[in-house]
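Researcher: Can you fold this with benzoic acid in place?
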Amino acid sequence: MRQFNEDNLTAEVVKRLGKTKDKRLREIMASAVKHLHAFAREVKLTEEEWFEGIKFLTAVGQKCDDKRQEFILLSDVLGLSMMIVSLNHKTVPGATEATVLGPFFAHGAKEYGYGADLREGATMKGEDVWVSGRVLSLDGKPVANAALDIWQAKADGIYDVQTEGEFELRGRVKANAKGEFAFASYKPKFYSIPMDGPVGDLINTTTGNHMRPAHMHAIVSAPGYQQVITHVFVEGDPYLDGDAVFAVKNSLVAKYQKISNAAEAKKLGMPNPFLKLEWNFRLAPEAGVKARKKIAASDAVA
Ligand code: BEZ
Ligand code: FE
């Protein structure tokens, strides 16, 4: 067939894609083509505009390297990452809600036990916080042998992996047999997503929305339970309603309490006064859930 125009072209592309052996790939490609063509038709995309689009996507690719993932950032700011999280992680009532992974997770973080100090080796100080809680099942029973991958930005809003140097404010914290975990860290602060690339340029010419409310990242895993990729946000943060990547859930907003108690500070090895965050993670059982890939210490995240 030949003589294609805006009325018959989509159907022909989809027909040719019918040869794709993999059923799921066929479905995804056909839908992507239909939506892309509909988008071009709807906005009557000009050749100059599409060339600008190609230039933008090229720049996004060129900004990527082993440390920088501009495509994840693009997916995040377009709300696509959060859309995919929502579609794939329907929260089981009572379980900790999932949210975006973001581009700054890293494998190979140091392992810590109960009472760890994630501030060790920190190049920048912050407000000292003692984080403690339990990993629980939906019926409130302790989950044994849970591991928490924790990471957060430094006081300047930059993640350790964005610069040369050692890991900082990051660790793989093991909970004990009663599901209890505790570690010292700094209170997270709000920060800007990276704005020095094409995604930053896009934000500057569109929404201007580039701030993330303060948060600590956590991936909580335990044998027999669904892994949850989540955040703990800070109550009162000015950006909770304007998160650049749409990741805030009410159930993930936590209170940091100020503690002035010399004896308690001494017992925990904290300065007096200090902040305290008490936070439990609740995991849904794995049974009956379609197996999905977990992030493990040995995996590579693109
Ligand atoms: C983050 O929380 O680390 C993050 C998430 C999405 C985009 C940029 C940063
Ligand atoms: Fe973050």
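Model: Folded with benzoic acid in place. The longest strand covers residues 128-137.
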